[in-house]
Specification:
This protein has eight helices and ten strands. By secondary structure, it is α+β, with helices and mostly antiparallel strands. The chain is globular, with a radius of gyration of 19 Å.
Length: 263
């Protein structure tokens, strides 16, 4: 027997309350994004090196994966330089501050997904290296949408499936076009631009135009970092060595048995 894996469009991600002064500047969100060692987390915590996210969704969903986007890469030095340029100076305790606001936050995670708290704790150490203080609070899944709804959310670490229905747009819309989503960002001003794009997308029958709209949506999310994708889930299948032609379905709905042969 052997195992074969495929990164699928289920994402472990971190979201920001962009309305807070420490996260309103896109440079801060980009710096935090750069300070996370995704490959290290994927290898040491998840034991799946290939699960490190380079953008929101993996290449297994080609319509919603843009290979032209610069992959998320670990660059602590670059993150520190970006924060310096943005005017966030380190204090005596090593935590950065600007105009009386400390670069600090509480991240809510989901207790029944135990890897999330471990990942968040790893990020806690990585973000400390760039002068950010992060506290981790595991709890019931309901805590996250409740905190988003009442506006107390600062950061969240959650798992999100983008193919509950076959068209990814059905999850993009609630996560990135509303002031208060259920699982995504909060108070992100870029939501209005994404909403204009998604409105056109769902009304269009022009496949070329829809492909361009997908690229535009992904680029905004990637560059403005309202949500930082940390890792993709992997669908792993145990396969007898005699089996050839296995196809792993990223939507987890079909086995494609008609493509399989026995040697």
């Amino acid at each position: 027997m052997k195992g074969e894996s495929l990164p699928i469009p289920r994402v472990r991600a971190m979201a920001f309350n962009v309305g807070l002064p420490q996260f309103a500047d896109v440079c801060v969100r980009r710096a935090i994004n750069m300070a996370i060692d995704r490959k290290g987390i994927a290898s040491a915590v998840l034991r799946h090196p290939g699960s490190a996210a380079t953008q929101l969704l993996p290449a297994a969903v080609p319509a919603w994966h843009d290979a032209s986007l610069t992959p998320h890469a670990f660059d602590a030095a670059g993150a520190n330089a970006l924060l310096d340029q943005a005017g966030w100076a380190k204090g005596a305790d090593g935590v950065r501050a600007k105009e009386g606001t400390r670069l600090a936050a509480k991240v809510l995670t989901i207790a029944n997904r135990p890897e999330l708290a471990v990942m968040a704790t790893a990020m806690q150490a990585q973000l400390k290296a760039i002068g950010m203080e992060l506290s981790v609070e595991p709890g019931p899944a309901a805590n996250i949408p409740a905190a988003i709804k009442d506006g107390t959310m600062q950061m969240t670490m959650f798992a999100r499936t983008y193919v509950n229905v076959p068209e990814v747009i059905a999850t993009i819309i609630p996560d990135f076009t509303r002031e208060r989503s259920t699982w995504g960002t909060l108070n992100w001003p870029g939501r209005d631009r994404v909403k204009a794009l998604t409105d056109e997308y769902v009304q269009s029958f022009d496949e070329n135009r829809k492909a361009q709209l997908r690229q535009d949506i992904l680029k905004i999310i990637h560059e403005e970092v309202p949500v930082a994708a940390i890792s993709w889930f992997e669908h792993t299948v145990a396969v007898n060595k005699r089996v050839k032609g296995l196809v792993i379905d990223p939507f987890e709905t079909r086995y494609w048995l008609h493509k399989v042969n026995l040697m």
